[in-house]
Amino acid sequence: MQHDWSRYWRSPDRPIEAMHAHFEQHVYHRHSHETYSFGMTETGAQSFTCRGGAHTSAAGMVMAFNPEDPHDGHATNPLGFTYRMVHIGPDLVSNALADATGHPTGLPLFTAPVLDDPALAGALRALHAALLGDATALRRDELLTATIAGIVRRAATTPIGRPGEPSRSTRVARQTRQLLHDRLTDDLTMDDLARSTGTSRYAVYRAFRTEYGLPPSDYQRQLRLRTARTLIADGTPIGEAAVSTGFADQSHLTRWFTRYFGLTPGAYRQAVTPGQPRSR
């Protein structure tokens, strides 16, 4: 009987990460990534909610998430699912799509989070295998560029960005987001958020959830987890990373880290810094 497992890889010098996992019991908490996230389901099926709808990615299907697209995820049935996911930073996507003169062409927007496209699934699998395998740097770059171009050509719609001035609601959401970034470890209240934006607590909550798909408290926790993940990858002891990012202790960080990222902080550190001790 197969049990939950996950393997992770992180580029030491570029914003690329890759995950290969099988889950039967694990349930992802609703979260988002700073990156574009492209994946393919190898076996079984996984169900998730994204952009206000329920979706299922069965074997051979492709998933495409924009940066900051909130989503969750779990096995569709008790047999579980196996999938490969590649996370690519927006700047790297922009560079891969630059025109012949080297000028960026803008960032793509994916409106369908699930695609039934065998060609794209094959390209993603090849890219993922190269990242986790022993392919040369040149081969990895070729596959990365070709895969990004292919998925944009076949699945993207309009560029990201809204014309004109942002609405009052959008400005409130962005101001709130900046406060959460600036005061990462502070125990902020809704009154703090309301005062900083000059509006009511309900208006802040509604504006933020409309803009980012998460309540401010979930975004705050996610931001702390992302920061802790960076610290851990840079060699900070897990307990120290927990306290410095606002978690009560290492076990508190571990519980939430696993719910968001699908592996423990210790397993993540071992994956991205081979040779490091498993606990510290």
TrEMBL record:
Record InterPro entries: AraC-bd, AraC_XylS_family_regulators, Homeodomain-like_sf, HTH-like, HTH_AraC, HTH_AraC-typ_CS
Ranges in coiled-coil conformation: none
Domain HTH araC/xylS-type per the UniProt entry, residue ranges: 174-271
Short name of one Pfam family: AraC_binding
Keywords: Activator, DNA-binding, Transcription, Transcription regulation
NADP keyword on record: no
Membrane-crossing residue ranges in chain numbering: none
SMART domains from the UniProt entry: HTH_ARAC (SM00342)
Record-given protein name: AraC family transcriptional regulator
Gene source species: Nonomuraea marmarensis
Organism lineage string: Bacteria, Bacillati, Actinomycetota, Actinomycetes, Streptosporangiales
